[in-house]
Amino acid sequence: MSALFESLTLRGTTFPHRAWVSPMCQYSAVDGLPQPWHRAHYGSFAIGRAGLVISEASAVVAEGRITPEDAGIWSDAHAEAWEPIVAFSHEQGVPFAFQLAHAGRKASTYAPWRGHGSVPLDTGGWATAAPSASAFGDYAVPAAMTLDDIAHAHDGFVAAAVRAHDIGADAVELHFAHGYLAHEFLSPLSNQRDDSYGGSLENRMRFALEVVESVRRVWPDEKPLLMRVSATDWVDGGWDVDSTIELARRAHALGVDLVDVSSAGNDPRQQVQVGPGYQVPFAARIRAEAGVATAAVGLITEARQAEQIVATGQADAVLLGREMLRDPHWSLSAAHELGADLAWPDQYLRA
């Protein structure tokens, strides 16, 4: 029997198997609203029978978008636009989760194929805010957040989680990775505050853990709460694996059920050691030392590679990104290769 294609139950929610679609920004929304592109994009993964589809980073406040074309879930109108996408996934028997996000100092930037850096204020950009008035590379310098600003961002995550539940999402993932707002609070490279949100590890974790606690309070007990982290900044003196383990341990105690383990994104000086499965050891260590389920991501492309990660207990699930773009039916192909029984849609049985 294939370990990859065994079901996984977190709280009261069972995922049909452990090959999941990683969050991937599409930079194709209009005023944060998903478009026909999104219906086709996410629908293809549902038809391909992924074990879970996780949305792209969905901004919890308008100013938290990475780009002007990023999707959001900061209003009821946004939730209503997402609802048929969630419903179609459910019609195919595939769970759907929302990744809730705030880009902090990396907001208001160009979509990758449109340019680089911050979008000027007079051409659709906006002023950004972050833990400290410290820019990411050559991006615009953000304003240092006031306590009211922090509370506003915190409340955005909570309200977005409520909307996600209202339209039937099976899980939410808090995006605390890749140099976005929560990661900016966590890392001493981007957080130079001297108040209760800066300085010590305890203080730098405060924002993330407050969001976890508040979201868990409004998120139904039977539904799992996920958290994406960057396990390391890949820069000396930055956020590291030991700190991530402590964050994961604390977050798990507050109700996080699975940690989605990525890395990097917070400092342009990063020196990432890339190779097949290069982030899997982070997931394995967090799973063992923090006592929480994990998902591994990063250059996982082959069925037997994914099988080995799960079968050996390095992670409880794997997340595929680019490989799912290349082949939205990856799960069906992998199940065939591994001898697992994964039912094709009736409409595709002749294939």
Structure description:
The chain has 351 residues and is of the alpha/beta class. It contains eleven helices and twelve strands. It is globular, with a radius of gyration of 19 Å. The protein has an eight-stranded parallel barrel with strand order 3-4-5-8-9-10-11-12, surrounded by seven helices. Helix 9 links the parallel strand 11 and strand 12.
Gap from first CA to last CA = 24 Å
**Shape annotation:** globular
Spatial ordering of strands, largest sheet: 3-4-5-8-9-10-11-12
Order of secondary-structure elements: EEEHEHEEEHEHHHEHEHEHEHH
Query: Number of helical runs?
Result: 11
**SSE-based structural type:** alpha/beta
Determine the mean pLDDT: 97
Number of strands: 12
Beta fraction of the residues?
A: 15-25%
Q: Radius of gyration over alpha carbons?
A: 19 Å
The helicity comes to 25-40%
Q: Which regions contain 5 or more consecutive residues with pLDDT less than 50?
A: none
Largest sheet: 8 strands, parallel, barrel
Draw up the topology in text.
Blueprint: E1 8-10, E2 13-15, E3 19-21, H1 36-47, E4 52-59, H2 76-91, E5 96-101, E6 129-130, E7 143-144, H3 147-166, E8 171-176, H4 181-186, H5 201-204, H6 206-218, E9 225-230, H7 241-254, E10 258-262, H8 280-290, E11 293-297, H9 303-311, E12 317-320, H10 322-326, H11 330-338
Parallel strand pairs: 3-4, 3-12, 4-5, 5-8, 6-7, 8-9, 9-10, 10-11, 11-12
Antiparallel strand pairs: 1-2
Helix pairs in contact: 1-2, 3-6, 6-7, 7-8
